[in-house]
Design brief:
alpha/beta, 13% strand, Glyco_hydro_1, Glycoside hydrolase family 1, glycosidase, 6-phospho-beta-glucosidase activity
Length: 478
């Protein structure tokens, strides 16, 4: 019989990103970042993939990151609510431009450092362990304008300075770190993922993989420094995950699924195993991609692999080697072919709880390193009553089914899983679309797509449901 509980010390919690919730984009010396200048509306897609040059705010556009949900000024209220739910951990990210407003300064901004110190102390007040993403799509605009973002090797120096500053200042306050959020996003949304804007006629694949090399070396350097500064530090990588299924048993569909999976696992192969896989080297050879590396790069990748692997999971994907098959899912940066056996969310994301167990097993089998699910959730339109209460049984059902398959992966398959943080534990701005109406949270925030609303917080039905899940260590989910 399946055990209903999770391992003792399992880290239940929720996740947010600075650029989607903090707001206060110019407060206390904070500089402008790439994530600030992505507007809501049809231009957002071209901006985040590096095809539409928008290096500053332009007239006639609404930029939701300017205000977010104003967590910069309300974090105490929000963390108190997380504490009430019983969070064991809270995954959040650092806004790089709060610490180094331009990115290339020699000295950090004290007000930015103090803000996060206060926030981490607030977490500890409620027994919440911070899980900190160093870079959740943030890249200072100055570094993009001056150096071209992560295509430039100079970024390693700036990132190393940021990491050293954070690990030193927050020693004893933070022990779980992630180097780059969804590092494979560099291939799909390169401006958002790495500050890459492409000029006419540029070899985009070459630029993306060169930038990827810089981020991978930077991640290894960060891991090295973290362990040197505090032996208690645990450093993880972070992948946008979701297994590809072949569309049919046709061998070419199976082969296409393998190749598409490799696109993402390539990054973790380097971060967890410490070397570039042969399939990637062969692919670069075929495409004429030449990665500029310096002496010592491969050594540092080999010697400083991550302690654990974290990932986001929202849906599985479907692959076909037949170019005539084109019926794709809607609304996701990782749009794939539709799976006729699955239901979909209001944004066209296919709902596949068993896919989470499959993904957990594939990653565990591949790397044999502890895993951490740091994003999972259902984006939906919530309709609150006059008190801001939302009857979100659809969200509860979605999360419950995913918790069950996660539990099966641990108890029946032997997967080592450290924790689970649901995405957008409080409503926040969507990274993909910039919308507020696409809500994930246990806590409703009164704000609409146009930035109108009181910003008042109120508990949804799922708030008390998740509180019970945490209190019973998962046993309440039958």
């Amino acid at each position: 019989m399946t055990k209903l509980t999770f391992p003792e010390g399992f880290l239940w919690g929720g996740a947010t990103a600075a650029n989607q919730c903090e707001g206060a984009y110019d407060a206390d010396g904070r500089g402008l970042a790439n994530v600030d200048v992505a507007p809501i509306g049809p231009e957002r897609g071209p901006v985040i993939v590096g095809k539409r040059k928008m290096f500053d705010f332009e007239e006639g556009y609404h930029y939701p990151a300017k205000v977010g949900i104003d967590m910069y000024n309300r974090y105490k209220e929000d963390i108190a609510l997380f504490g009430e739910m019983g969070f064991k951990t809270y995954r959040l990210s650092i806004a790089w431009t709060r610490i180094f407003p331009k990115g290339d300064e020699l000295e950090p901004n004290e007000k930015g450092l103090q803000f996060y110190e206060d926030l981490f102390k607030e977490c500890h007040k409620y027994g919440i362990e911070p899980l900190v993403t160093i870079t959740h799509f943030d890249c200072p605009m100055h570094l993009i304008k001056e150096y071209g973002g992560w295509r430039n090797r100079k970024m390693l120096e700036f990132y190393e300075r940021l990491c050293r500053t954070l690990f030193t200042r927050y020693k004893g306050l933070v022990k779980y770190w992630l180097t780059f959020n969804e590092i494979n996003m560099i291939l799909h949304a390169p401006f958002m993922g790495a500050g890459l804007y492409f000029e006419e006629g540029e070899n985009e694949e070459q630029v993306k993989y060169q930038a990827a090399h810089h981020e991978l070396v930077a991640s290894a350097i960060a891991t090295k420094i973290a362990h040197e500064i505090d032996s208690e530090n645990k450093v993880g990588c972070m992948l946008a995950a979701g297994q590809y299924y072949p569309n049919t048993p046709h061998p070419r569909d199976v082969w296409e699924a393998i190749n598409l999976d490799r696109e993402g696992y390539f990054f973790v192969d380097v971060q967890a195993r410490g070397e570039y896989p042969n399939y990637a080297k062969k692919e670069w050879e075929r495409k004429g991609i030449e990665i500029a590396m310096e002496e010592g790069d491969l050594d540092i990748l080999k010697e400083h692999t991550v302690d654990f692997i974290s990932f986001s999971y929202y849906s599985s994907r479907v692959a076909s080697g037949d170019p005539e098959v084109k019926d794709k899912t809607a609304g996701n940066i990782f749009a794939s072919l539709k799976n006729p056996y699955l239901d979909a969310s209001e944004w066209g994301w296919q709902i596949d709880p068993l896919g989470l167990r499959i993904t957990l097993n594939v990653i565990w089998d591949r790397y044999q390193k502890p895993l951490f699910i740091v994003e999972n959730g259902l984006g939906a339109v919530d309709t609150p009553d006059e008190n801001g209460y939302v009857e979100d049984d659809y969200r509860i059902n979605y999360l419950a089914e995913h918790v069950k398959t996660m539990r099966d992966a641990i108890n029946e398959d032997g997967v080592e899983l450290w924790g689970y943080t649901t995405w957008g534990c409080i409503d926040l701005v969507s990274a993909g679309t910039g919308e507020m109406k696409k809500r994930y949270g246990f806590i409703y925030v009164d704000l609409d797509n146009d930035g109108k609303g009181t910003l008042n917080r109120s508990k949804k039905k799922s708030f008390d449901w998740y509180k019970e899940v945490i209190a019973t260590n998962g046993a309440s989910v039958k």
